[in-house]
Amino acid sequence: MQYKRTCEVCKIFSISRTTLYRYAKDPYFPKPIKPTKRVTLWNIKEVEEYLKARTQKAESAN
């Protein structure tokens, strides 16, 4: 598993920090892990799968 910090996830997917945390409110969005108080890590593969499914769902609705 590959984990990245919040800022790295935002860069990889070209989204803002606010958008990432908005997505995180969705119960289907992968939950981050917090190894320390100040560090939040996200599983890149799970986030990628979520965004891919979200994109496919949006495209099929059109």
Summarize this structure as a short list of keywords or feature phrases.
62 residues, Multidrug-efflux Transporter Regulator, Chain: A, Domain 2, three-stranded antiparallel β-sheet, 3 helices, elongated
Structural summary, described in words:
By secondary structure, this protein is an alpha+beta fold. It has a single domain, classed as Multidrug-efflux Transporter Regulator, Chain: A, Domain 2 (Orthogonal Bundle), CATH 1.10.1660. Helices cover about 55% and strands about 20% of the residues. It contains 3 helices and 3 strands, in the order βααββα. It has a 3-stranded antiparallel beta sheet. The longest helix has 18 residues, at about 45-60. The chain is elongated and about 40 Å long. The model has no long low-confidence stretch (mean pLDDT about 95).
State the gist of this model.
The chain is of the alpha+beta class and 62 residues long. It has helices at residues 6-13, 17-24, 44-61, and strands at residues 3-5, 33-36, 39-43.
SSE blueprint:
Elements (H helix, E strand, L loop, with lengths): L2 E3 H8 L3 H8 L8 E4 L2 E5 H18 L1
Antiparallel strand pairs: 1-3, 2-3
